[in-house]
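HOLO CASE FILE
Compound: iron/sulfur cluster
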Amino acid sequence: MEREDNRIFLHACCGPCAEWPLLVLPKEGFDVTLFYYNPNIHPRFEWQRRLANLRKLGTLRGVEVVSEEAYEEQKWRNEEWIGKYESRCHMCYDIRMQKVAEEAKANGFSAFSTTLLVSIYQNHEEVAEAAERAADRVGVSFVYRDFRDGYRKGQDMAKEDGLYRQKYCGCILSLEESKFRDRIYAGFPDVSIDPGSAG
Ligand code: SF4
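Model generated. Tokens follow.
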């Protein structure tokens, strides 16, 4: 299917979650550009590792990856910041969707979407609502898709592609809460082990 204005700015939280949307959206006629903007991720090593794996996927699929050098995980441990929102995840979706909408518009895209919509672990409705709000504020279209039916398939594809698959959502709080916490910390280089460090 050909679209008149088929470019879409696809926010990507990581490589594995991008697998399925990268299969679906081109079949619908979209020309996808991936956008890595995840200032929530802790520590910096992990932020870089997820970006590196997204770039790897982009190379495998011939899809451009652009990224925003933003690392603001301090906000995710700042109660004053979080208190401005209904919850930390609400804040997380709102900050990211606002930026994605703004960058889509600034770069001449008429539409954006997000790979967060593939995860069965995210609050799907809140992600979509945050994206809709950002789209309205900025004046750009949000393309909603419920990608969750492809979550497992996407994870299998990531495994076949040799992508790193993380065991926690991304922020320091999700890392601390993870049942794999100790194993995750053991996988970081020494410099990033201190959960109180900025990475
Ligand atoms: S748990 Fe995930 S969505 Fe929620 S604030 Fe942390 S990184 Fe963001």
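CASE NOTES: The chain has one domain: 7-165. The longest helix spans residues 88-106.
CLOSED: yes
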